[in-house]
Design a protein that fits this description.
Elements (H helix, E strand, L loop, with lengths): L1 H15 L9 H9 L4 E2 L7 E2 L6 E6 H7 L4 H5 L5 E5 L6 E5 L11 E5 L2 E2 L20 E8 L3 H4 L6 E7 L2 H4 L1 E9 L3 E12 L2 E12 L5 E2 L3 H9 L12 E2 L4 E12 L2 E13 L14 E15 L6 E21 L14 E20 L5 E21 L17 E2 L10 E17 L2 E12 L3 E15 L2 E12 L3 H5 L15 E15 L2 E18 L5 E18 L5 E14 L10 E14 L2 E13 L13 E11 L5 E8 L7 E2 L14 E2 L4 E9 L1
Parallel strand pairs: 6-9
Antiparallel strand pairs: 1-2, 3-8, 4-5, 6-7, 8-9, 10-11, 10-36, 11-12, 12-15, 13-14, 15-16, 16-17, 17-18, 18-19, 19-20, 20-21, 20-22, 22-23, 23-24, 24-25, 25-26, 26-27, 27-28, 28-29, 29-30, 30-31, 31-32, 32-33, 33-36, 34-35
Helix pairs in contact: 2-3
């Protein structure tokens, strides 16, 4: 009932925002307002209609992003059916939960790509611990598949794949400058240019921004639990709680693309600095924690479509250098973890340097009637080549000296948390897109990956697509996937909270899906899909804090989505996702992920030059982890709104965006703990926020 009331109020408010203006042609403005989401390339490597793609896919266009007023990638991904953006207490990093599959503190089960190149860090197996945010000004479209994708993409395409496609010269077509300011001391500015230079297509982008992140109050933290234990001995409390989360960060994001003939060179740079520690790396508030990361990515590709009428060749090389550096107070001044008091707090300063070299070759052959054959070979060199750590505590958590800042010593060569490691990965795959009969197509593929540190793994995928009628498509999908153990899970040492295990095997998942897409009218589409999955060899910590393959999980669910354009100026959309997962060892829900999600959305082109957007998002029925006796996490509903206007000649645009309009007390679940839960009141999400954006085309 609350969800319905808020959605109605949001829609009524949108209807009240009526204004006048003059604009370009109606057809052009409709395209700019709603965009084209009919095709996807992430499912097979080739551009195919979404309805006929051999996967369950979602496409979000740049126009869609602008309509909803999204500022960061997380806001966009929350609109994908079956995908929920949760939060980790570590650095407040996003955890992309797909169909109930998620990590506790990190997010290695979802593969993120930029222009088809993985962002995976070798240390943690996800996007990197110091991720920060991801701006959207240089994004042309985002493609998401739910379900396994290892047959095409290899490691970590486990629960799903997210591919961010950046804007090329034709997408920008000129020079754009923009700026944004708003709540939580948020400010950013950017410039983009797309054009031609000496026969070369050039696309350039630069953005700088900052935010305080809207960190709400943490009522109690891990130090609060320790204070309660030592209170009986007359020890004064040391916790910073109640206190705000430390969600600050600053960011520089840049990219350059040069394209000419069959060649394309891309370079990108992302620097995140002064990144706060969220609720604390050790789940104890750290107001001064300072984290940074730098990522430099260079990608060179050669795409020859003229090798013959039946062949299409793509050769690609990619080099990445990624670094992380942190200065942390894990527990505050006055803490005692059983080995003595720390005068200035328990201090740790880890740093990591890694690089990755990737070479890929793909051939597409269409010389056999009814078939599109794709073959691929690849090689990856992953090297965590340098680590550094200084701290003022011993491996048993006792202080070095008095536990002061002056007692911080370099332990890189004495008791490091890890030593450098390197591994090589080779892969080969084959895929056939076969039009086996009228209105029937079968996509079948298999991929083998061989890792130098734990061996090989093979994964198939099969998809049968039936155009049952001109307006009805049905799919039956089966796929398997794997997640490679990260370097931290394999090789951590001298760490009493987690020890690596070089004998780990990859996590594995098998998924069976059925999907239907129906277009009952030209202005309406309906989609439904049901799935079931089986996970094995789940990596987790045993009773001695050593990583082991010790878990199994099953899950099933249903995802529904609908879109209707009742008039040329209106678009209404709704979606609902239901999932139920079970840990096969405990017989209980794995916890943390929502069992139900729903969303309502309305986009209205009020008049020429004006557009309004309203969106209500409901997250419900989140269970606790096994052994956690706290009550279930409260459901929440948030409402977002956006209003934007552009000049008649399209030279400038203004947007006003409100997030969590009704200031809902929304919280994401915190993990269980022993002997106490470190964050008993969970992780609060930001409250109401308002942002203003201005863009000018020169």
């Amino acid at each position: 009932m609350l969800f319905a009331r808020l959605a109605a109020l949001s829609l009524a408010t949108t209807l009240a925002l009526h204004a006048h203006g003059a604009g370009v042609s109606e057809e052009e403005e409709l395209a700019m307002s709603f965009g084209d989401k009919s095709h996807v390339s992430i499912a097979t490597g080739s551009r195919v209609p979404v309805a006929r793609a051999p996967s369950v896919a979602t496409v979000i266009t740049a126009e869609d992003i602008r309509a909803m007023g999204a500022i960061d990638l997380d806001e966009v991904l929350e609109t994908v059916p079956g995908l929920h953006v949760s939060r980790s207490p570590v650095l407040n990093a996003p955890i992309y939960t797909i169909r109930g599959i998620r990590g506790t503190l990190t997010n290695p089960q979802v593969l993120m790509l930029v222009n088809g190149v993985p962002l995976t860090s070798v240390y943690a197996g996800d996007r990197g611990l110091n991720w920060g945010g991801q701006p959207l000004e240089n994004v042309a479209r985002i493609e998401v598949i739910r379900g396994p994708g290892s047959a095409v993409y290899g490691a970590d395409a486990f629960a799903g794949v997210i591919n961010i496609i950046t804007r090329g010269a034709a997408d920008i077509a000129g020079t754009e400058v923009g700026a944004r300011a708003g709540s939580f001391d948020t400010a950013s500015a950017w410039v983009l240019h797309g054009g031609h230079w000496g026969g070369i297509d050039v696309a350039a982008y630069l953005e700088a921004g900052r935010t305080e992140g809207g960190g709400r109050t943490i009522e109690a933290d891990g130090q609060t639990g320790l204070d309660a234990i030592f209170a009986a001995f007359g020890v004064p409390p040391a916790s910073h709680a109640p206190g705000p989360m430390n969600n600050d960060y600053k960011l520089i994001d840049a990219a350059l693309e040069l394209a000419g003939g069959p060649w394309k060179l891309r370079g990108s740079y992302k620097r995140v600095f002064e990144l706060g520690s969220g609720a604390g790396v050790a789940q104890a508030l750290d107001p001064t924690g300072n984290n940074a990361s730098q990522r430099l990515d260079v990608d060179l590709s050669w795409h020859d479509t003229d090798a013959g009428n039946d062949w299409d060749w793509l050769v690609r090389g990619n080099a990445v250098r990624y670094t992380e550096d942190s200065q942390l107070v894990l527990f505050p001044a006055g803490t005692n973890l059983g080995g003595g008091f720390f005068q200035d707090g328990m201090i740790g300063n880890p740093a990591k340097w890694e690089h990755r070299l990737r070479l890929d070759a793909t051939a597409l052959y269409s010389g056999i009637a009814g078939h599109r054959l794709r073959f691929g070979l690849g090689y990856v060199d992953e090297d965590l080549y340098r680590l550094r750590e200084s701290k003022n505590f011993n491996p048993d958590f006792s202080p070095i000296g008095n536990g002061s800042f002056g007692d911080v010593v370099d332990v890189t060569d004495t008791v490091p948390f890890m030593v450098p490691h390197q591994r090589e990965v080779m892969h080969a795959y084959a895929q056939d897109e076969w039009s086996l009969a009228r209105d029937w197509s079968l996509t079948a593929g298999v991929r083998h990956d061989h890792y130098s540190d734990f061996g090989g793994t093979t994964h198939p995928r099969v998809a049968l697509v039936w155009d049952a009628a001109y307006d009805l498509t049905a799919k039956l999908l089966y796929g398997s996937a794997f997640r490679a153990p990260s370097f931290s899970e394999l090789y951590l040492i001298n760490n009493p909270t987690a020890i690596g295990n070089a004998r780990l095997k990859p996590e594995r998942v098998r998924t069976l899906e059925m999907a239907v897409s129906w277009q009952p009218a030209a202005n309406a589409t309906l989609g439904a899909n049901a799935y079931r999955y089986w996970m094995t060899d789940i990596i987790g910590l045993d009773s001695t804090n050593v990583y082991q393959n010790q878990g199994r999980q099953t899950g099933k669910g249903l995802e529904l989505e609908a879109q209707w354009e009742p008039a040329r100026h209106w678009r209404l959309a709704a979606q609902y996702a239901l999932q139920h997962s079970e840990n096969q060892l405990t017989g209980a829900d794995p916890g943390l992920a929502p069992r139900q999600q729903a969303q309502l959305r309305a986009d209205w082109r009020i008049t020429s030059g004006w557009q309004a957007h309203a969106q209500a998002n409901w997250v419900g029925e989140r269970r606790r982890q096994f052994g956690d006796v706290r009550p279930p996490v409260a459901d929440y509903t948030t409402v977002d709104m956006a209003l934007r206007t552009r000049s008649a000649n399209g030279r400038w645009e203004l947007a006003l965006v409100a997030r969590n309009l009704f200031d809902s007390d929304a919280r994401e679940p915190s993990p269980n703990g022993v002997p106490f839960v470190s964050l008993p009141q969970d992780l609060p999400l930001p409250g109401r926020a308002v942002f203003v954006t201005a863009e000018v085309r020169l």
